[in-house]
Amino acid sequence: MAAVAGKGTPAPVRRSFRVVPDASTEVVGERASNAGVLLFSAVVFAVSFCAVLGAAGVLAGGIGVGAVIAALVVAVLATMSVHVAQQWEKVVVLRLGKLNRVSGPGLFWTWPVIEQNTMRVDTRVRVTTFGAEETLTADLVPLDVNAVLFWHVWDAKAACTEVGDFTHAVELAAQTALRDAIGRAGAAEVAIRREQLDRELKRVLEEKVAAWGVTILSVEVRDILLPKELQDVMSLEAQAEQRKKARIILMEAEQDICEMMDDMGDTYAKNDAALRLRAMHLLYESVRETGGTVVVPSSFSEGFGDVLGDAAKDALGGKAEA
Q1: CA–CA distances in Å: residue 308 to residues 45, 58, 299
Q2: pTM of the full predicted structure?
Q3: In sequence order, what are the residues at sequence separation of 6 or more whose Cβ sits closer than 8 angstroms to the Cβ of residue 136?
Q4: What angle in degrees, to the nearest 10, is found between the helix axes of 166-184 and 194-209?
Q5: Model confidence over 105-127: pLDDT tens digits?
Q6: Which residues contact 79 (CB under 8 A, 6 or more apart)?
Q7: What is the tens place of the pLDDT at every residue in 127-148?
Q8: Considering only CA atoms, which of 105, 51, 99 is closest in space to residue 77?
Q9: Do 210 and 151 meet the contact criterion of CB atoms below 8 Å apart?
Q10: Closest Cα to residue 121, out of 105, 145, 97, 142?
């Protein structure tokens, strides 16, 4: 009986790791049908039964109970002897309990009673989805990780004789490898280096399942879920990092401007006329952009006295008097 933490408070629910196998790679509506194999067996049974009855009728001159029983026995033995394997199937055949051969695809024969086609192995690519919930990383952060495993059986003999249930074994091996990989890395490393995690899982699984006649094609991590609190912290950290980069860039720009202003200051210090022209240019730019008017409390010619030559000053003075 579950203990109650307090009055009106339900007992805490523990979340566990889970594996969601999906060994079938076919879409609903595209599944392979075994109707052809069943029809072939029915035809073999019927042909054998009719052939024995026909032979008994010709030889004995009639069909009796013994002929019917003999026809049934022969038809059953013929059906047990002739088999058909699909293009993607490998059939492990045992003879008196010992491994004899791997047959298929296509038509193959077995000795009735003595040989048994123990297991039909699908050699097509299989897809297994698996995930680890609340797995602790090296820095003690719980993560929920979902991944997809692509694999297939290349050695039906090893898959049937080396491991009891190779499909379930591959699923559990993938889950264990995922939990170990997450536990060896930090939360940020797992979230950022997803491709590295894929390669590590593939390498570990290949070493573990090679003896079972299974090949790992690829492992792809689909989703990594961080706790909400950690997401907020990482978001603030990312924002702070971006602000830091922006300020560094601004300071570098200010440094470049300072160096340019230093060079300009040296130039203007050596030439007062250039400084005055720059001041006039800045004044003109401010008036042009704002559309305002600047009133200078001096005559027009005196404002340019230090810049213009004597001839220009006389010309401007004459125009002003006129």
Answers
A1: 121, 139, 14
A2: 0.60
A3: 142, 143, 182, 183
A4: 140
A5: 888 989 888 888 778 899 999 99
A6: 41, 44, 45, 48
A7: 999 888 888 888 888 888 889 9
A8: 51
A9: no
A10: 105
